[in-house]
Design a protein that fits this description.
This protein is α/β, with parallel strands linked by helices and about 160 residues long. The protein contains 3 helices and 7 strands; from the N terminus they run βααββββαββ. Belongs to the GreA/GreB family.
Length: about 160
């Protein structure tokens, strides 16, 4: 995550806000009760329930801090200003992989919405970053961990919301 420039779609922001609310109002109070219950069992040095509950508390608090930081620095992708012919967060991009000679269709999302199995790629991923700002007819090269990937942009549209 690039802390200086995080872009989220409206749906990503809403999902993070829901998760944050659930962590604060449901999960954190529940783990506090687990800790209290485990403490009542006596010696904490040999209490696996207590150790596990404290680890879960730390995981929940860490996730809360992560989400709060993301929401603090995130920019909301303004889908009303999204140019239909230029790739941006919220775009659906049909590309031609010049090496494998096949077409793919990607939806460009903010980093929290990435789901490669659903062909949703982050604007910060190598392919997503290479496609940002491209138009139909452009050829871009993405520097991926597996090596450079050359893609021709066939079309750019908007994701259906």
């Amino acid at each position: 995550m690039s802390e200086n420039h995080v872009v989220l779609t409206k749906e990503e922001r809403e999902r993070l806000e829901e998760e944050l609310n659930d962590l604060k109002t449901v999960k954190r109070p529940a783990v506090a009760l687990e800790i209290q219950e485990a403490r009542s069992h006596g010696d904490l040095s040999e209490n696996a329930e207590y150790t596990e509950a404290k680890n879960e508390e730390a995981r929940i608090n860490g996730r809360i801090l992560d989400i709060e930081q993301i929401l603090r620095v995130a920019e909301l992708a303004d889908e009303t200003k999204l140019q239909s012919d230029v790739v941006g967060v919220g775009s659906v991009v049909r590309v031609y992989d010049m090496e494998y000679q096949e077409e793919d269709e990607y939806t460009i999302v903010g980093f929290t919405g990435a789901d490669p199995m659903q062909m949703k790629i982050s604007n910060e991923s190598p392919i997503g970053a290479a496609l940002m700002g491209a138009k139909a007819g452009d050829v871009v090269t993405a520097d991926t961990p597996a090596g450079p990937v050359k893609l021709k942009v066939l079309s750019v549209g908007r994701a259906s919301v």
